[in-house]
Amino acid sequence: VDEFLSEQEQIEQIRGWWSKNRNYVYIAILFCAAVVFGNNTWKTNILNNQYEASTLFEELTEEVVQSDLEAGELIAGTIYSDFGDSIYAKQTRLVMARLYMDQGRDGKAEDELRKLLVNNKNNEFQLIARHRLAKILLYQEKPQEVLSLLESHTNNAFQVPYNELIGDAYLQLGNFSAAETAYQIALQDTSAIPLVDSALIQMKIYDLPQQTIDDVLPQVNKEGERIQ
């Protein structure tokens, strides 16, 4: 507004500008209010969902402590259907896998863990799920599946415990040399909090069948010719 205009002229200019632009001002105010309200509503919904999911997960853990599989499955189903993309759904799969194993239902436990491995992101939940799944496969005496599951995923924070299970798999396959190699890698645990029981791994190495002379020396026939 021109400072040299009279007060009345300034008022008239303001009135004219307001008459032309007030609708735009109203729209801008309403838009800003809607954005603020929508953002607050969105944040409120997120918090409410997190609270509800965390409450359900807490109820689930109580049922797990009580070994109530039926009640646990009902709560888990609700978490999967209503909060399937949340961190609680991932935690639920780990918890349910443990509950199924406690109930002797290793197949169901395997299914829960495999659902956490549907992509190849190697996040913390997948690292844990892969480790627990490998244990189940060893329990099922499927060592080759353990190797397929773990050997291409040892370049991460779970390298040490993975190699212990790789050693166990080779032991089941009767490949004692490969088992010892994997165990030795597992012993190279430099983490502040040990990820494996070093004494147990040392015992596994000690218990490996020793090579016999026949394993080391070439086999020959009566004529002294080497047997292929």
TrEMBL record:
Transmembrane regions: 24-42
Location(s), subcellular: Cell membrane
Pfam families referenced in this protein's UniProt entry, alphabetically: TPR_21 (PF09976)
Keywords, sorted A to Z: Cell membrane, Chaperone, Membrane, Transmembrane, Transmembrane helix
UniProt domain Ancillary SecYEG translocon subunit/Cell division coordinator CpoB TPR: residue ranges: 16-209
GO cellular component: plasma membrane
Protein's membrane topology: Single-pass type II membrane protein
Matching SUPFAM superfamilies: TPR-like (SSF48452)
Cleavable signal peptide: none
Molecular function GO labels: protein-containing complex binding
Family membership noted in the UniProt record: Belongs to the YfgM family.
Protein name listed in UniProt: Ancillary SecYEG translocon subunit
Annotated organism of origin: marine metagenome
